[in-house]
Amino acid sequence: ADAVRAIAKVAGGIDAIVIDIVEISPLLRERQQQSLANLPVNPRWHEAFDDVSAGPFVLLANEFLDCLPVRQWQRRAGQWYERLVGVDREGQLAMGQAPVPVSVLPLDVGHLDMQDGMIIEHSQAAHR
User: Fold this and answer.
1) DSSP state of 27
2) By C-alpha distance, which of 83, 81, 69, 51 is closest to 127?
3) Average of per-residue pLDDT across 2-27
4) Which residues of 29-65 are buried (b: 16+ CB within 10 A; e: fewer)?
5) β-bridge mates for residue 85, sequence order
6) 55-95 pLDDT, tens per residue?
7) Which residue, 8, 77, 70, 80, is CA-closest to 39?
8) Which alpha helices (H) appear in 1-128, and where do they start and end?
9) Phi-psi category of 125—alpha, beta or left, where left has phi over 0 and alpha has psi -120 to 50?
10) Dist CA 61 CA 55 (whole Å)
11) Dihedral of the CA atoms 75, 81, 87, 93 (nearest 10)?
């Protein structure tokens, strides 16, 4: 609904869009239909991404992207160290860092002004 409100502010925006929603859960589909009932354009629901119309598109996939695994690296003393999840002295999950810096990151960050303390993350699964 937020994306449609933003598109509506652009002249001719509403007339130029088609909304295809992929949702496999009947319960979530029903909730989406209720919450999107007053949109100025009628969404179409699908069971699979393959059922979505061909052509240029913008993909909004918040929950899907949130569930993909990511790896993180933090810059320290001019080098990159992978951030890891482990168990602390009290037996609780905690973030930590690998003891040895990585020699190569799986993505190009050379164009970024990365300072010590900054964190980057990458999801290989998002690129498949």
Assistant:
1) H
2) 69
3) 88
4) beebeeebeeeebebebbeeeeeeeeeeeeeeeeeee
5) 95
6) 888 777 777 777 788 899 999 999 999 999 999 999 999 99
7) 8
8) 2-8, 26-35, 62-66
9) alpha
10) 17
11) 40
